[in-house]
């Protein structure tokens, strides 16, 4: 399946708009990653634990959106947008959402 942030796909024509599709993932950051990130924040540097968690959440949100588009009979999702938020009283939850338009191509 083609997934793109653009509103068209070069060399292909949209035959049918199936509708808007979403992918959402909310994941908790465990205490060990939180401690490691706190140390990185103090001493400087990148937080590999948080980066890995973000990568997995983003991939899962895109996969969920793709599965929903496929169930609608689409073969592409165009105009994809992604958003990232932290949730919870202590900001210990990461939310990744994506949305786009599911389409059938000629």
From TrEMBL:
What Pfam families does the record point to?
YbjQ_1 (PF01906)
- Judging by the UniProt lineage, the source's domain of life is Bacteria
The UniProt entry's coiled-coil ranges are none
Q: Which NCBIfam families does the entry link to?
A: PRK01119.1 (NF002224)
Similarity comment text for this entry? Belongs to the UPF0145 family.
Spell out the protein name for this chain.
Answer: UPF0145 protein FYJ71_02960
The opening ranks of the lineage are: Bacteria, Bacillati, Bacillota, Clostridia, Peptostreptococcales
């Amino acid at each position: 399946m083609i997934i793109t942030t653009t509103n068209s796909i070069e060399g292909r024509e949209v035959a049918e708009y199936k509708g808007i599709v979403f992918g959402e993932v909310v994941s908790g950051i465990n205490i060990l990653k939180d401690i490691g990130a706190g140390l990185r924040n103090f001493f400087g540097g990148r937080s590999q634990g948080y980066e890995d968690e973000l990568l997995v959440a983003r991939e899962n949100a895109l996969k969920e959106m793709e599965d929903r588009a496929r169930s609608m009979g689409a073969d592409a999702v165009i105009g994809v947008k992604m958003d990232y938020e932290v949730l919870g009283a202590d900001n210990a939850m990461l939310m990744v959402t994506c949305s786009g338009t599911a389409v059938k191509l000629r």
